[in-house]
C-alpha cells in the first residue's frame, strides 16, 4: 500500500516482503516434506494391490463405497487378524492421490470407492490390468537398484540394477520364471488398452500385408492389429529366442527368435513398440539400419514409444515421462532414454529414412512413422 510518509512506506514494504518470504519458505518446507514422504505413495499402492483391495471394492462392477472393515471382510472372510485401521490409513493417503474416492459421513465413518485411476488396477476378463506394471516395478530386485542410482552419474558403463543384482534386468528375468511371468503380465496389462487407443485413431496399418513386430514379446500387439486390420495376413513376431520360446499360438503369426542388432525379418512394414527406449543412440541407429534393409522401397517403420517433452514443466505428462526416463536409466540401460520427437527424427534420418510423422494418439506413447521413400 502506497503511504505518503516515506518511513511508513518503508516499514510496510519490509513487513510485506518478510511475510511473502516466510509464506514461500513455509510452502517450500511443505513441498520438501511431501517429497520426503513420496515413497509412501507407490508402496501404499503396492500394498493395496497385494491385498486385492481394488477387486474387493469393484465387486464385478458395482464399485459401491465400502469401509476398510468391509473391504477386509471380502479379502479375508475368516478374519485373520487384519487391521482395518491401518488399511484405512493407507486408503486415506491414496484417496489424496485420486486412486480412491473417500465418502465421509456425519459420524466420521469413511468409505471408499474406485476412481478412474483406481479402476486401472482391476483385472479385465483376460486377468490383466495396470496392477502388474505397478508390482513389476516394485519387486525386490528393482528396489535394490534405487539406493545406488547415483552410480549412473558416477559410472554410466553399467546400470544401477546390474550393480545391485550382479546382472542386467532382462537376463535376470529370463532366468526366473516367476519374474518373467510378471514382466510379461505387466507388458500385456499396459499394451492392451494402449493398442485399443492406437487402433481407434491411427490407420497406418492399412495396405500392409506382412507386418513384423520387432521386440514383440509374446505377440499380443500383433494379435490386436491383425484383429482390427484383416489386410495384415501375415504377422512375424520377432524377439529374443528365450522370449518367443514361450509365446502362445496366434492365428496368422509366426514367432521368430533372433537379435535385432544382427538383422530383422522382412515385411511391408515394421512395428516396434516400447523397445527403443531401452537402447543407446548407437544401438537404435543400428536397428533402424537393419529395418531399412528389411523394408521394400515404399516401406515404413511404425514405432510406438514414449516421446519426451522438449520443455520441462510441472504437468502430469512431463512428470510421468521424465519419471519413466529415470526408471530406464536405473533399471535397463544408463544410456537408454526417453527421446524427444527431434531426437527420434535425427536417429531415423541418420539410418537413411527420409520422411517422418508423429501422431500423438495417447498422452504417454506416440506413434512415429519413418518412411523409406520421400513421397
Ligand atoms: C519393454 S518390452 C516391449 C514388448 C512389446 N513390444 C510391448 O510393447 O509390449 C521390450 C522387448 O524387446 C525385446 N528385445 C530386447 N532386445 C532385443 C533384441 N536385441 N532383439 C529383439 N528383441 C529384443 C525384449 O525381449 C522385450 O520383449
TrEMBL record:
* Gene3D superfamilies per UniProt: Vaccinia Virus protein VP39, Winged helix-like DNA-binding domain superfamily/Winged helix DNA-binding domain
Q: Where is the O-methyltransferase dimerisation domain?
A: 33-123
InterPro entries the record matches: COMT-like (IPR016461), COMT_C (IPR001077), COMT_dimerisation (IPR012967), SAM-dependent_MTases_sf (IPR029063), WH-like_DNA-bd_sf (IPR036388), WH_DNA-bd_sf (IPR036390)
Pfam families named in the record:
Dimerisation, Methyltransf_2
O-methyltransferase C-terminal domain location: 146-354
Q: For this UniProt record, give its keywords in alphabetical order, as a comma-separated list.
A: Methyltransferase, S-adenosyl-L-methionine, Transferase
Q: Does the keyword Metal-binding apply?
A: no
Q: Carries keyword S-adenosyl-L-methionine?
A: yes
- Highest taxon of the source? Eukaryota
The protein's name: Nicotinate N-methyltransferase 1
Q: Which organism is it from?
A: Stylosanthes scabra
Upper classification of the organism: Eukaryota, Viridiplantae, Streptophyta, Embryophyta, Tracheophyta
